[in-house]
Each structure stands twice: as C-alpha cells, then as structure tokens.
Amino acid sequence: MLNYLSCSQEELLKEKAVLEKTYQDYVSQHLKLDMSRGKPAGSQLDLNNDILNTLETYITEDGTDARNYGILDGIPEAKNLFSDLLGIPTEKMIIGGNSSLNLMYDNFVRLMLFGSQGNTPWCKLDKIKFLCPSPGYDRHFAICEDLGVEMIMVPMKEDGPDMDYVESLVAKDESIKGIWCVPLYSNPQGVCYSDAVVERLASMKTAAKDFRIFWDNAYGVHHIYEEHTLKDIFEATKAAGNEDRVYYFFSTSKITFPGAGVALIASSESNIAEIKKHMTVQTIGHDKINQLRTVNYFKTADGIRAHMKKLADELRPKFDVVLNTLERELAGTGLLTWAKPDGGYFVAVDTLEGCAKATVALAKDAGVVLTGAGATYPYKNDPQDRNIRIAPSYPTLEELTKAIELFCVCVKLAGVNKLLEDKVDEEEAI
Amino acid sequence: MLNYLSCSQEELLKEKAVLEKTYQDYVSQHLKLDMSRGKPAGSQLDLNNDILNTLETYITEDGTDARNYGILDGIPEAKNLFSDLLGIPTEKMIIGGNSSLNLMYDNFVRLMLFGSQGNTPWCKLDKIKFLCPSPGYDRHFAICEDLGVEMIMVPMKEDGPDMDYVESLVAKDESIKGIWCVPLYSNPQGVCYSDAVVERLASMKTAAKDFRIFWDNAYGVHHIYEEHTLKDIFEATKAAGNEDRVYYFFSTSKITFPGAGVALIASSESNIAEIKKHMTVQTIGHDKINQLRTVNYFKTADGIRAHMKKLADELRPKFDVVLNTLERELAGTGLLTWAKPDGGYFVAVDTLEGCAKATVALAKDAGVVLTGAGATYPYKNDPQDRNIRIAPSYPTLEELTKAIELFCVCVKLAGVNKLLEDKVDEEEAI
C-alpha cells in the first residue's frame, strides 16, 4: 500500500490525477445516499413488525386499564423487564415516552429551573459548564447549546474520557456541573468505558456539590462483534457515597422502532422522587399501551437479548463492509486512522489534520451525505478538523459498498490535496 | 321542596337527625367509588378499541417510514385531519405525543427559559403573574405553582372570564404574562366563551408585550346536549394585530384513549418556528405510528365527529342522572346552585359558603371520592369554600346513581350543620 506521507510532490500530483478521474466516475453515477444519522434500515425494522400486532391485553399486571389515565412512572411489567435487562432496581426507574433524548432534555431543564437536592437552580447561576468527552454525540452537545451551558471538550481515550483531565477540572471548578457519557460503544467511536473509568467517575471529588453524570447507555445491549459489559455505575456511586450523581438513560429506539419505542430514566431514589414531583405536573402519564406492546412482544430480558442478536446479524455485514473496505483501501496510506467498534451504530475515523471537512464535502458533491464534519465536537468545532462519523446502518449493503468505496476515494483525494498544499507552504517557507 | 334557609333551629335539628340516619345507611353500604377525575369509563373506551388494530401502513403520505426517526412536527395526514376538524392551518400546528398537558408544560418552560419573540425570558424577571379564571382546571394551576408563577384569580361569568376585570388588570401590570382558558365547555363549569369574550381576549391592550393566552380547547368536539361553537381565536388575534398572543392546545385523550392519544399545539407561524427551534433539540420526533393509527381509524374530521356522537350517547345518561338527581333533591332547598353544561366532562356546583370541604369530606367518609374541594381554585384555595367538581364519566350508571344520591345527602347535611352553626353564632352575637 502506498504511504502518501512519504510521496514526493511529483508522485502526489500523479496520484491526484488518477484519484480525480475515479472521483468523477462516481460523480457521474448520480448517487443519492444518506449516511448522516444512525438510522436503522427498513430491513432491520421489518424484523420488529410483529410488535404492532402483539398486544394481548390492555390491563396491566396491577389491574390498571392502560388505555386510561393513570400511572406516571411506568407500568410494573415494563419496569420489571428493563430492571432484569439492565440490573437497575425498579425503584430507581421511570418509564417515559418514545424518546430518551426527550428525558435527557427535560431532566436538564429541571436542573436549570429547580436545581437538585436543595442546590441552587442552574439557571440562577452566572455560568455553568458541562464536560463533553469528544468526539461525542452531537445531540448531547445541542442540549447544552440550547440551554446556554458552556461546553468543555475532554479528549476520549481507548477506555473512556481522559480521567486525569476530568478529575483535575472538576476538583477545582464548581461551575462544572456535569458530564455527558455514552459508556458502552460510545457514539461515534465505539469506546467501552473500563471499570476503572466508571469507578473514577463515580468517586471523584467534585467542587460542585450537585455534579451530575448524564449516563446515556444508548447502546447497552447493542453488541455486534465481541460482547462488552459495563460496570454498574449505581453500585459504584453508592460505594463512594455519591448516589445522587448519576442519571441513567436507555431506550428501545434501536431495539424496536426509533419513532415509537419506549425510553427510561433511572437515578437514586431521592432524585427519582424529585423528578416525579415535577413530572406529575408535566403529564398525567406516558403511553402505557406502547409499554404493554413492548412487554408483550419481548416477554423477558432474554427475549430482548435474543432479538438483539438478530439485529446484530443484520448490522454486522454492514460494519464488515466498512471496516474491510477501509482496511483494504487506506491501511498503511498514512491518511486515515480508525478503531474497530464491537457494537453501537458508528465507525469513527480520523483523517489527516484539516481534511475532515474537505472529505465530507467531496462525498456530498458526489451524492453521499455523511454526518457533518465537526458535528462530533462541541459547537460543531473539531479543532483539528479530523473526525468523521460513518453510519453504516441505513443504506442497503449494495449502496453501502459503493458509498464507502467513494468515501475512501474522497479521503485519499482530500489527503493528497492537503499534502500538496503543505509542500507548497514548505517551499514558500524556505 | 323544603327551603332550608328559612327553617327554624328546631326544624333544622329535626332534619339533621333524619339526614344523619340516611347518611349512616350509606356508610354501612361500604361504597368505594372514585369520581375525582374526568376519566372515561371502561365502557366508553371499549368504543375505541378498534384503533389498536387499525394500522394499514407504516409509510406516511409523504413517503416517510413512521417506524423510523424523522418528522419533528407531525405526519402530514395527521395535520390535515386536525386542520379539517379545528379549522387551524397546518402551518400553525405541531403534533406532539400523547398529552396536551405535556405540550402546555413544555411551552411554559420554554417561555421561562427562552422567552418569546425577543422578549426577556420569564425566569429572568423578578416576578411574573398569570390570570386564572376560576373555578378552573387544577392541572393548569399546578403548572403555575410548579414554575413559581403567581396566580391571580379571575371570576368566571356565564360567557367566560370577567373581561372588565381582565382588561383592567392586564392594561396596567406588565408582570401579568398570560391567562389560562378552556374556552368550550370549561372545566369544571361547562362555560362556553361568547364571541365577544374571544374578541376582547384577542384584542385587549396588555402592558406586557409578550402576553400569552394558553387556549386549552380540551373539549372542542365534546358536545353532550346542545352543540356550541367557538369563535376562531386565530382570526380574532390576526384582525387585532396580536398574532403571537395565542397558544392553542388540543388532544384526542378523550376521543380515543387518555393514555395513548395524540396531542397538538398550534400558534402563529413565528411562534411555531420558535417552538421547533427548541423542540428539535428536545426530541427527534413524537410517536408517528400512533399518529398514523389515529388517522387510519377516523379517516376524516367527520369520522371524528361521528365518533364523538357515540361517546356523547354513552356520557349523556350519566349527565342526566347527575342533573336530574340534583334537580329532584336540591332545587329550591337554597343549599346548592349549578348550571347545566352542554358538553365537556363535569358538572360544577356551589354549596352554601363554607360547605364545600365539609360536603366532600362527608362523601369521602362514605366511600365516594370527589375532586378535592378547593382544587378548582389557584393554590387549592376556594376563598368561599363553595365549589365542587362532579365528574360523572367514570362510574357505571348504577354506581353513579347511588353516588350522586349520597352526594345530595352530604350537601344537605353539611348545609344543615352550617345553618345550625350560624344560628348559634347569631345567638352568641346577641
């Protein structure tokens, strides 16, 4: 494989000509593919269709008519199902509507307006800040931006956020009120937090008394290759005497239907009591019929796990195509680095510095829409312009194969252009 | 009919003895009835069960897969259905989740945190106040209480809030930021706002530039006897140049299922743009499958209207029982006043001053739970302790008959006790 970093200007110019021709061939194919979001493909959703016809009864275990008003925090059988699946006691849990993002946003809003456990509401403070391990999930960052919360970028390492840096920040700055975490198969890199990282997050000393971890376990059962496990954050915070520190989020959006699943929030019992106090004013209750549908469809936690294996079988060939094509086309070129994720929904790659935007723009001009470059960083600002999130789930295998081949051409072309620019700069500097 | 107000002490004592015996007969029956909330009965919900099996497709009119992510503001066919039903242009509308209360709460929260149309966020102001026509809906008042908004009671008249009073308040106090309205078959009195009231609300001068009407048209198609219509508030605010003044709410909670219906918020296009800006951060989208179910079930606005006639046929006998029993047992006694509602979910009554709490307590001790006395006023404080909300929908006709007969006994007993106390006070005062 040609290592572009050691090429001469002449070699690069030759390579550029070849790449531009290949790129134009793709342009002339008028591709139209959206790989911008982590959306399941229709074929994957088809595997869940039976849930729409699965309702056996509308009376819940405790005798409630699920069609009617009543039950703020979720029907008992739904709580039990997710308790078994995630190892969270039902007392720590509220089942919400169809969106865990909605639960996160509303929870952040409550902290802004009311504060937690007697601490000052965050909106009454001059400034509050949140730690954003990056690359990370753009919708988390958007919540901070919407609510006027300053974001501090924290580098991601192979086993989670850079904890030395996190600990040093939170120890001294009481305006740092929390951290966003996707602890298993993180969005976008697929990083799985090590036990040590979970323990340090749970036990670290924070200047803010009301420091909060938003623990978005979005991919908690979304294994694709090797199955990873996650240390129980509630046990860790309990052991450290920080029981109120964590809000845990989960949903079936990528288990059943993204538009019509069931979401949950879990926290300490005293935090849950606090949430319910306001939630009971906000709504009489979430959609209990849909909770029943979910329980009737899966029956047990093992039912969900078995279903996730089917979904993994659907997703794995797509991840294979992405990873194999990257390996074949770009390993050893010096133009791209990436790590193989074992689950989740994304493959994150890093281009040469200053090449992510150009690569995404080239792909877009050839009809393949990727997640915007920079989106994985706070304020959409990737300081090195390197990270790109590839979402393999939505296209068909055939479409994906073509799209990722085009992507590799774009990486090379943007990389070669950058290397040529650098050579010009070097000459001018002489 | 005995007019208790003109009875002597002796007559009252005699009557009291009879009433206490009758009351004890009810107590010994160990009734257990909940008439506290406006919940549809199971038999009424049974009329909607087909909606659970009605889904014809999961692809929406515009080709979106309703199972997947996408569409923040509602599927086009749902917007069209409610646009036809309510006469609201689709551009002014967002279809939400299962709860209009949730849309109201979230909308209030946005006004607190972000303000509207460039005005100061309400949480940044020292104090804000809201007008609460009373008796009114306790959950509206709870939102104000939760968010720390001072409530000002406004008397209800036969055709809506006392507009002279409303206009005099809002003209001079810019901390008054809005008013709660249930404009058709109001909760609890069944008051229908006249055209003049709607026009005055739409056009009145307000000291606050960002004065907002929360227009909760909860019973917009919930006719029981004579059908009333409601003047179009959007046309009225447009004519008056106050297009941003109104947020309109509606839901199918009492059309299909209270726990699993579809809700909407409507407002000026510029307010809707403002809402979407934040809502797109809060959620990727609401449950589109349930929106499709609703459309597939009703097909057209006329389909909803025909369905509402069936529900009215189910509810009318219950309202008949309440109204006929009150008439038979209490007309001319001087102990209770009420107005016949033509729609909605409640019959509101007024006892003698200082008798509502005692009446509700007597009913409770005999096993019939009514809405708490005072609940229909801000801070749960009915200054005259007179108003009681009767919710006839949930019990069976048989249960209701018994419950309302007991209720009449409680009204009389509490009334007689009060009149006897007054006589003692009079004597002591001599």
Entry keywords:
eight-stranded mixed beta sheet, homodimer, Aspartate Aminotransferase, domain 1, alpha/beta
Topology:
The structure is a homodimer.
Chain A lengths: L8 H19 L5 E3 L6 H5 L29 H11 L6 E3 L4 H15 L14 E6 L3 H9 L3 E8 L2 E2 L1 H10 L3 E6 L13 H9 L8 E5 L16 H7 L6 E6 L11 E4 L2 H14 L5 H11 L2 H30 L5 E3 L8 E5 L4 H10 L2 E3 L16 E4 L6 H33 L1
Parallel strand pairs in A: 1-12, 3-4, 3-6, 6-7, 7-8
Antiparallel strand pairs in A: 2-9, 4-5, 8-9, 10-11, 11-13
Structure at a glance:
Chain A is α/β, with parallel strands linked by helices and 430 residues long. Chain A has helices spanning 9-27, 42-46, 76-86, 100-114, 138-146, 163-172, 195-203, 233-239, 269-282, 288-298, 301-330, 356-365, 397-429; strands at residues 33-35, 93-95, 129-134, 150-157, 160-161, 176-181, 212-216, 246-251, 263-266, 336-338, 347-351, 368-370, 387-390. Chain A has 2 domains: 4-45 and 305-424, Aspartate Aminotransferase, domain 1; 55-299, Type I PLP-dependent aspartate aminotransferase-like (Major domain) (Aspartate Aminotransferase, domain 2), CATH 3.40.640.10.
Overall description:
2 copies of one chain form a homodimer. The first copy, chain A, has 13 helices and 13 strands. The model of chain A has no long low-confidence stretch (mean pLDDT 97). The first copy, chain A, has an 8-stranded mixed β-sheet with strand order 2-9-8-7-6-3-4-5, sandwiched between helices. In chain A, strands 10-11-13 form a 3-stranded antiparallel β-sheet, with helices on one face. The first copy, chain A, has 2 domains: 4-45 and 305-424, Aspartate Aminotransferase, domain 1, CATH 3.90.1150.10; 55-299, Aspartate Aminotransferase, domain 2, CATH 3.40.640.10. By secondary structure, the first copy, chain A, is α/β, with parallel strands linked by helices. Chains A and B meet through helix 4, helix 5, helix 9 and helix 10 of A and helix 4, helix 5, helix 9 and helix 10 of B.
